[in-house]
Design a protein that fits this description.
By secondary structure, the protein is mainly alpha-helical. It has a domain at 73-142: MYOD Basic-Helix-Loop-Helix Domain, subunit B (Irregular). Helix content is 40%, strand content 3%. It has seven helices and two strands. It has helices at residues 30-33, 37-43, 58-67, 72-107, 119-138, 150-154, 209-212, and strands at 166-168, 179-181. It has a two-stranded antiparallel ribbon. The radius of gyration is 27 Å and the shape is rod-shaped. It binds a DNA duplex through helix 1, helix 2 and helix 4. InterPro entries: bHLH_dom, bHLH_transcription_factors, HLH_DNA-bd_sf, Ngn-2_bHLH. Residues 9-73, 172-194 are annotated as: Disordered. One of its GO terms (molecular function) is E-box binding.
DNA sequence: TAGGCCATCTGGTCCT
DNA sequence: AGGACCAGATGGCCTA
């Protein structure tokens, strides 16, 4: 569970603070320890590889126009204020994204508390979980209600299967093995698993991106 | 110690 | 003009 330890604060109170919020992480970016890139651009406009040929760009002209009549210190302060404000928004945006990922984790088949899925695992698992559920629905007629359901085919069937569908996963995501017990009649084992050919894409909920999505 | 994961900063681009 | 979104860079933490 990702805790949102850094709440959005307006930039005004952060102007003099190197670390704009009280994140428990000990992370300190170099940019917060020295002057920002904006500051460096202001001090040395021709930094290597960047901002070359910008003098005639509308953005640059606009900035220069805005700077007219203002001291370098004021311009610097304005730039820093905007940067801090943008950083706060970006941080908040990423926190919202993480909250959405947490919500997604909660509706996925439960895992042991100490086995939190990584971001990429969560997305891949959700993708395959949705796919498996839709396949289960699609083939939900009595003829196909058996151990040969796609969900059972793509995942290891739970040996202790009951009448109601259930999912379970091992403790380690890295070596995860999620199982699905379809709501199949105990006696309907006649359908062979060969009757359905799963796409290789869906064989493993934690399939690596290199092999599955690229 | 290397590699994976993550949070954060940053500048660019697009949109309203 | 300002905000949202994005991707690259950076450095910390954790684990095998």
């Amino acid at each position: 569970m990702v805790l949102l330890k850094c709440e959005y604060r307006d930039e005004e109170e952060d102007l003099t603070s190197a670390s704009p919020c009280s994140v428990t992480s000990s992370f300190r970016s170099p940019a917060t320890q020295t002057c920002s890139s904006d500051d460096e651009q202001l001090l040395s406009p021709t930094s290597p590889g960047q901002h070359q040929g910008e003098e005639n760009s509308p953005r640059c002209r606009r900035s220069r126009g805005r700077a007219q009549g203002k001291s370098g210190e004021t311009v610097l302060k304005i730039k820093k204020t905007r940067r801090v404000k943008a950083n706060n928004r970006e941080r908040n945006r990423m926190h919202n994204l993480n909250s959405a990922l947490d919500s997604l984790r909660e509706v996925l088949p439960s895992l042991p508390e100490d086995a939190k899925l990584t971001k990429i695992e969560t997305l891949r698992f959700a993708y395959n979980y949705i796919w498996a559920l839709s396949e289960t629905l699609r083939l939900g007629d009595p003829v196909h209600r058996s151990a040969s359901t796609p969900a059972a085919a793509i995942l290891v069937q739970d040996s202790s299967s009951s009448q109601s569908p259930s999912w379970s996963c091992s403790s380690s995501p890295s070596s995860s093995c999620c199982s699905f017990s379809p709501a199949s009649p105990a006696s309907s084992t006649s359908d062979s698993i060969e009757s359905w050919q799963p796409s290789e894409l869906h064989l493993n909920p934690f399939m690596s991106a290199s092999s599955a999505f690229i």
